[in-house]
Amino acid sequence: MRSQLDRTEKLLIVGLPILIALGFILPEWIVNYIQVSLGTGLVALGVMIQMRAGLVSFGQGLYFCIGGYAAGMAGKFLGISDIFLLLACGLIASVTIAFAAGFLLRRYREIFFAMLSLALSMILFGLLSKLEMLGSTDGFNLPSATYLGWAPEGDTAKHALYVATCIPTIICAFLLNRYLRSPMGYIGEALRENEIRLEYLGTSAHRAVHIKYVIAAGVSGIGGVLWALALGHVDPEMTNWTTSGQFVFISILSGTGNIVAPLFGTFILEIVRVYAVELSPNTWQMILGTLMLLTIIFLPRGLWSLIQEKKHAKKSGGEK
Amino acid sequence: MLTAVAIAVDGLGFAAWLFLSSVGLTLIYGVMRILNIAHGGFYALGAYSSAWAIGLYTQTGSTIALTYLIIPLAALAVGVIAGLLIERGILRFMYGRDEVLMVLVTYAIFLILEDVTKLIWGTGSMVAYQPAYFLGTIEIFGIPYTIYKLCLVGLAIVVGAVLWWGLNRTRIGKLLLVVIEDREISRALGINVTLFFTVTFVIGVTLGALGGAVTAPQISVVPGIGAEIIVMAFAVIVIGGMGSIGGAIIGAIFVGFARALSVHLYPPAELFSIYLVMAVVLAFKPYGLFSLAEGRKI
Question: Whole-prediction pTM value?
């Protein structure tokens, strides 16, 4: 069973060349938004896989920021600009820190998990805001990416970076989907339902949370690197709680039903934001908040459940 | 010596301000089990409405002394209007849901409130320095302090005392303690739990708005102050133990002095020292420094 591709994985595999092709067809500004939202979409994915286990991380910006800053510092201090090395830096930094912090966080659930993850991300925020070496609240710029020694310029550089953003994102989404379908992934859902029963079945809930936490951090770190490269800039706002709140928002809105949902959700949100900010800049957050309330009340499993429900309805003749 | 005095006075000032800004949060959590992110929004509403009201009033050229009445009235107005609207309009449909879900609901409300303040008062900054300026300064060991700041310490003590007295020495307060202990039993005893929830929420919102209202004369009121205060208030109530008034006092003193220490000894640590204290406390005593162990209910 496991070696077979499920529907989502097929969609991802077919989607990758289409996504890349779109980068050459669509107008540049849309491509920019796609690229940026792929980066943040990965972080939303990280929040989403934790939400599957009933854990709401109000500090996922921490790893988003660590990824971005790790890549930025590697570029600034070590002169590294190779995208593979930068991605590795971001991944290693976020996974290492998550592994250490995981020993702490795995003991907590519900609001305490949310609060502790928030506190950790705010520590970094406080640190980075005051660290003049790293530009304090202004942050600093990243070098433009190179690819195994190839340093493209102008339009080629843009396209190359776009392709280099699409591929890791799709790979991450693919692997995460595998993870969620694996026994370890299903343990996460059991965790949400009843942790004590899970322990009776002979599995360690702590270990499951720890693994999930580290995976989520790794994905978010990669997202941070890609986002930072797309913008060419990092600043402490990446780890402010309001940023983390947006990731939570995306996961709520799109739901935890499918890996693809947060990626789409981020993109749609990004586009809506562009228009909303232009039309009425002071009601943008109000729209977000209202949407979120409506989703929580009427679509507790997110927008994706609309698609799912249709499928279910077809299969079982109307019964949920 | 001079630094020690400065740290003590500043620490006390910070602590009083933090207590005023976070006691409403802990009250609402204690009674309703809602970790209210929207508290930051109420704080901002309070700050804006008091700054706005003070501005309108001082334009008339009347005596400044009356502004000290305007500040609490502005907070009360916010508390009653926003509190009732949100509790009756949104929250009451959500009672009994997961605590985490309530966090998300209040986060959504927080986002909405952010824009409500922008729509009412615009995105510019507002200044209402008169009440703070009017009282002048006092010298403590040669360091000048605004008397207004010291008055806030007094106000914090009064608010804390009134809350303690109200909870422990009045009939309603004792009934509220029963509600906190066990909602179902108290409902069975004939206590109107819904009414208690509504009133508690309004009081909590008023306190949050009061925190903002008394701060307004000392700062320039700008968008985003709500997002700043809420994490600070989280730190305060987590350290002392969420849901207890005494805990908020202890947390406020802890955070207040941590901040004063870092401001005077190592300024770059100012921001993260607070969150560091919060994370350390959460890591070792997640239910607060002075909480008792609670049995797990399966």
Answer: 0.86
